[in-house]
Amino acid sequence: MSILTTPTMTGVDGPSRNADVNDWVRDLARLTKPDQIVWCDGSTREWDDLTKMMVAQGTLIRLNPEWRPNSFLARSDPADVARVEDRTFICSERQADAGPTNNWRSPFAMREELDTLFAGSMRGRTMYVVPFSMGPLGGPISQLGVQITDSPYVVVSMQLMTRMGEAALDLIGPETPWVPAVHSVGAPLVDDAGVRHEDVAWPHNPVKYISHFPETREIWSFGSGYGGNALLGKKCFALRIASVMARDEGWLAEHMLIIKITSPAGKVYHLAAAFPSACGKTNLAMLNPSIPGWKVETIGDDIAWMRPGPDGRLRAINPERGFFGVAPGTGITTNPTAVDTVWGNSIFTNVALRDDGDIWWEGLTPTPPAHLIDWQGEDWTPESATPAAHPNSRFTVTADQCPSIASDWDSPEGVVIDAILFGGRRPSTVPLVSQARDWAHGVFMGATMASETTAAAEGAVGRLRHDPFAMLPFCGYDITDYFAHWLEIGETLGADAPPVFSVNWFRKDADGRFIWPGFSENSRVLEWIVRRLDGSVEVVDTPVGKLPRVRDFNVEGLDIGYEDLQAILSVDRAAWTREADEIDAYFTELGADRIPEPLTRELRTLRASMR
Ligand code: OXD
Ligand code: MN
Questions:
Q1: Atom of ligand 1 nearest to the CA of 228
Q2: Which of 40, 127, 314, 493 gives the lowest tally of CB atoms within 10 Å of its CB?
């Protein structure tokens, strides 16, 4: 049962064994002035009560239970549809500690501003207290947090995305560290004059702040109810705050999926892989191999926490409990496993509604239904000029519903990582796969990850958006210190450091067509990586890494010409000369004197070998 306390309770009145938690809740209630406080227990009953309440209020639409049992559609305000990177702040005491890639505000100035914004921000609403664990409850790599929110949509989403409720609260003992995370949609129902207003389906505030205080490990989020802005366990805690904890404590908090691969011989491997947002991470996490005898199972689709284990090897957990996946492009041909995962017990946000009470989005099926209600609640037909689902529409569902979930996905000790992959979206230059010479070269591969944003003019590369380690919007401190931290972890791991690979599914030919088919055929790249781990294939040593010999690459049954394969498995010297210039310019932008020496050495070696 949820526990109800009043906004005027004293610290000892709260249900937490940790007096700081009770005091913090009481102080926030005094500041935000909710009508009541509900301590969430994470039960099915709570889910049921809140979803029923939101259906009655118009925040959720219950989907036809024949097609999609216990599932709901939410439509957000069109002005609150995605993470707001320009409103995301790292409030470290020294600006230099936020580094060149983060928005910085002084913690004192930010606290003042937030104090004003949060004052009375929950008037007329319920304040929910959401205790949660990132990672399996009580696990040695897991961390605890408490989120306060005035959004019931956030509460039910946190039920799906984290281990939330009574069990997490019980784990927070008097001395247990926990991360405070404060969230308000910033839309009080009672104004300063005491007049009560009608609620809207998706309350939010045009003023938005997603603020992180790395020194005190706190999160304060105001004004948005959407995704990573509001489900504070995900990007805010598991990446931005956790990356700072990881730096201080000698581990890694990464924007990486984790998969388990079983070879035809029955040998098991675990891989962690970083890709920038919108590069098909969920598809790789749920890959259905095209090559016979191979099995890929899912451990996580977005975040990995990795620590050197007692045996000296790197161990990883997925700190999340569920998937918050991008819906468009997830379809019965591209990712049937994800489609099966959301069979029920799911929340869909900003997708289209079918006339039969089920959902649809672009790419779910090859042919769109003849009529839909689009994500803004308007009639839609295939002739409509706008998409039926918002491009950033999402499904939220627990990982244990995924048919490809691995049996060890929630192992508290984590799984041993056998290889790390870095992938960008590069129509040119970067080969389909290559292995780093050593850890420092692997860190260089991570630090120089990028996506090409515009189509290449004849012979020229497109504009690059650098996204080091896919952490650009998620690193809670100076990214150049983060590079140094990766190098230090390599020293700790020594000979046990997993090999590092660069992958790129996105090479295009001169006509702009993708050369590599991608999706389930990416299993051929995984096969080559596994054969490298076993030492059963030779490589071609090149200045950009160890490349496959074309004859070793398994293309049986694949319609790809030798020349095309050769092109994506070789070094284009002219392109790599330009790449070295690009990297040089990027390192200068980050602060040439801040880049750790092993990485500038890698760049010098690359340049010298292209002469
Ligand atoms: C995500 C992202 O939503 O990376 O996972 O943007
Ligand atoms: Mn992500």
A1: 3
A2: 493
**Residue 280 banded pLDDT, cuts 50, 70, 90:** confident
Task: Report, as an integer, the average pLDDT of 8-19.
Answer: 74
d(CA 183, CA 148): 6
Residue 4: CB atoms within 10 A of its CB come to 10
* Whether 402 is catalytic: no
380 has which bridge partners? 372
DSSP letter at 196?
A: B
User: Is residue 7 very low, low, confident or very high in pLDDT (cuts 50, 70, 90)?
Assistant: low
User: In residues, how long is the chain?
Assistant: 611
**Which residue in 252, 243, 319, 325 sits closest to 282, CA to CA?**
325
Q: What residue's CA is closest to ligand 1, atom 2?
A: 277
The one catalytic residue among 40, 91, 279, 475: 279
Sorted by sequence, the CB contacts under 8 Å of residue 421 that are 6+ apart come out as 271, 272, 273, 274, 500, 501, 502, 503, 529
Ramachandran bin of 114, using left for φ above 0, alpha for ψ from -120 to 50, beta for the remaining angles: alpha
Pair type for strands 143-149 and 179-184: parallel
Which residue among 232, 326, 465, 475 is best mutated to probe the pocket of ligand 1, counting the most ligand atoms within 8 A of its Cβ?
A: 326
Pick the range with the lowest mean pLDDT from 7-11, 105-109, 214-218, 456-460.
456-460
Three-state SS for 230-270 is HCCHHHHHHHHHHHHHHHHHCCEEECEEEEEEECCCCCEEE
Angle at 543 between CA 589 and CA 513, to 5 degrees: 80
Neighbours of 377 (CB within 10 A): 11
Q: Which residues line ligand 1 (CB under 6 A)?
A: 228, 277, 302
Instruction: Dump pLDDT digits (tens) for 513-536.
Output: 999 999 999 999 999 999 999 999
Higher per-residue pLDDT: 192 or 271: 271
**First-to-last C-alpha distance (Å) of the chain:** 70
- CA dihedral over 494, 501, 335, 295, signed as positive or negative: negative
Bridge partners of residue 501, in order along the sequence:
421, 435
Site to substitute for ligand 1 among 277, 281, 451, most atoms within 8 A of C-beta: 277
pTM score, whole prediction: 0.96
Ligand 2 mean position, distance from CA 514 (Å)? 24
Q: Which residue has its alpha carbon closest to ligand 1 atom 4?
A: 277
Kindly list the distances between the CA atom of residue 550 and the CA atoms of 268, 389, 539, 565, in Å, as whole numbers in the listed order.
Answer: 25, 41, 10, 7
pLDDT tens digits for 366-387? Answer: 999 999 999 999 999 999 999 9
Report the nearest atom of ligand 1 relative to the CA of 474.
4
Place of tokens 């090479």: 507
List the one residue out of 422, 344, 428, 470 whose CA is nearest residue 64.
344
- Among 302, 303, 396, say which to mutate for ligand 1: greatest number of ligand atoms within 8 Å of CB: 302
